[in-house]
Amino acid sequence: MIVKSNFHLLYYKKIMDINNYQQLMEKAIAYLENEFKWMQVWRATTWLVESLNVDVGYWPTKMNWVALITTLDHSTIKIEPWDKSSSKHITNAIYEANLWVWVDDQGSQILVKVPQLTQERREQIAKNIKSMWEDTKWNIRRIRQDAMNDTKKSFNSKEISEDEHKANESNIDELTKKMNAKVDEMVKAKSEEVMKV
User: Fold this and answer.
1) pLDDT tens across 50-104, in order?
2) CATH ID of 47-113, from 3.50.50.60, 3.90.930.12, 3.30.1360.40, 3.90.1170.50
3) Start-to-end Cα distance in the chain
4) Architecture of the domain whose range is 14-39+118-196
């Protein structure tokens, strides 16, 4: 009974190792998704500013905790501070975030204008997207190699059989292919979005 229990735990761990590598790849993709989100500075959306830290009181506070944030149109964000004296701090937070926007502090409200992209700016964003794509693919390759090394080590130490080792390699390659395809699709969509805005 003890031998069977140990074998079961070893087999379970082997499967969990593959799942762990999948989670690492998904984290790399999630990071890319978040970077893409912050690149959408040519369209007025509340999330562009709502997560910025505003230096009020004794510690930084998220923008959406100190003001009402809405959009007036596709290029204008309106920020209405709950405390009018915090408008200067809100304006500073926007400037420090380097969002490529214009800020009009009117006291009772702050208007944030999102400029239209120039062709030069679009091309620069497209280059940044390609660079992020390369970084993400490199991270996925590195995680794949770590997974391959892990299953090879288990096979060499006779913790798993050759069939299990080959099955692991096949699963890792299948996972890598799936993740790379997702990244390629994301980058293609984002590049097209930037160039046609």
Assistant:
1) 889 998 877 889 999 999 999 999 889 999 999 988 999 999 999 998 887 899 9
2) 3.30.1360.40
3) 65
4) Orthogonal Bundle (1.10)
